[in-house]
Amino acid sequence: MLLAELAGALVPQIVLALMSRMGEEALYIRALFMPVFFLFIAIETAIGVTNQVAVARATGRQETTAMASAAHLARVCLLAVLMVGGLLALSAPLLADTFSVHPDVRDDFEWFVRWVALAHVSLVGPVVCAATLRGAGLARPAALVLLVSAALEVATVTVLGLPGLIGWGIWSVPFAIAGSGLIGTAVGLWLLRRSGLWKRGEPVGRRRETALLQQVGIPVAITYLVIFASAAVLTWVVSTQGPIVVSGFAVAYGVQTVIIVPGVVIGSATAIIVNQHYGAESRDRIAHTVRGGLTVAAVTYLFLALISWAARTPLTGLLADDPSVAAEAARYLEIVAPGYACMGLVLAALTLLEQIGGGLLAVTMNVIYFAAICVVGGMLSRTAGDVEPLYWTMTVASVVGLSALWVVHRFIARTAQPSAPQVVLPEGPSQATYDLE
User: Fold this and answer.
1) Which of 238, 255, 259, 256 is nearest to 388 (CA)?
2) Structure pTM?
């Protein structure tokens, strides 16, 4: 599971590194596009997590409704991606104005937004297939789906985009996303057949997960929409400092995106086990599972904070071909990376909270965290005419964020009580009962 999620997070950073070899303009366009990726991540993660929770709980109850849940959520995901893609296609000029895109690359930026938005439609299949397999406890097949898609995207950008090969430059990216998504879907469907979750000759069935989508998926989506909004605001803040700072910020923020993956994976893996405990009515095992997951997160992020700070210069030099961009990215990590020791632990706890019915609490704490960074850090940075006050604000916010652990602890303690109430989720003629608070 960790390998697959890391692959998914590493792909945009590898593509970013490849684009830095395609010229300064290509890297600049990709850097400006960075916040937009979180819109699609919001949809794909919300649907994936909802499907994973539905399948995990059905597995705990020994029900066979995985494909019915997956089919319903795949339709929802497809519709949402099409709507967001259409809005982005229409609003591309507004994005260019907001980020003060240089006139020389404005037209390329707008068309890059449109083509990449269209290509993301193909990623619905791998997302839903992998989540179904993962929720059923088939972590290796789920990882294979994501790894195949990731490898194909990187390979396609390399062959089609780099100078000296086919040389399409930035236009290789939408082709790579579309191709990897279609092949990943085919692999995912084959693995669902092979695993027995999708049995030949049997109807998929109908099962609506509307209530679970509202309780789990929407809070997850809102969290990533908050990240999108904050990334857009931060990009706007640094855009006044010129293309070098914008590109350096994007490279460093990309490194941070990879750094947060273990926290999301640990929190999500812990949530899968907790949700199976819910389904099996084994509430007495929940507290022990949560403690184990958060302990792993704490140790992991002490190590990652140290490594990302100590190796900042060679790491950013590897990702950015331009020494000035690499130096700007290293400046970000020098200030922000030590705070990862706190940020990762909180992230794992909030990810767990989102997936066991505490979505509103998780969203509230995420909104406070990112709003503080954007408002306080943005004002200080704009006033000083430099980005360092913004970076220091991010570090302080990570430390203060540890206070969220107490809220998570209280929620878990209350939820794990045998007397916790049930929430009945409507699903048409029949009803499914999930133990949530």
Assistant:
1) 238
2) 0.71
Break the chain into its structural domains and give their ranges: 2-434
Q: Which residues of 274-300 are buried (b: 16+ CB within 10 A; e: fewer)?
A: bbbbbbeeebeebeebbeebbeebeeb
Rg of the chain (C-alpha set): 21
Do the beta carbons of residue 219 and residue 354 sit within 8 Å?
A: yes
In angstroms, rounded to a whole number, what is the distance separating the alpha carbons of residues 163 and 171?
A: 12
Strand, coil or helix: what is 362? helix
Q: What is the largest CA-CA distance in the chain?
A: 66
CA distance 148 to 136: 20
How far is the C-alpha of 254 from the C-alpha of 33, rounded, in Å? 12
Interatomic CA distance for residues 370 and 397, integer angstroms: 9
CB 335 within 8 A of CB 392: yes
**Residue-wise pLDDT tens digits, 182-209:** 999 999 999 998 888 877 655 555 666 7
Give which of 265, 296, 300 is closest to 134, Cα–Cα.
265
Beta-bridge partner residues of 426: 431
CA 156/CA 174 separation, integer angstroms: 10
Number of residues written out for the chain: 437
Highest mean pLDDT among 193-207, 267-281, 321-335, 415-429: 321-335
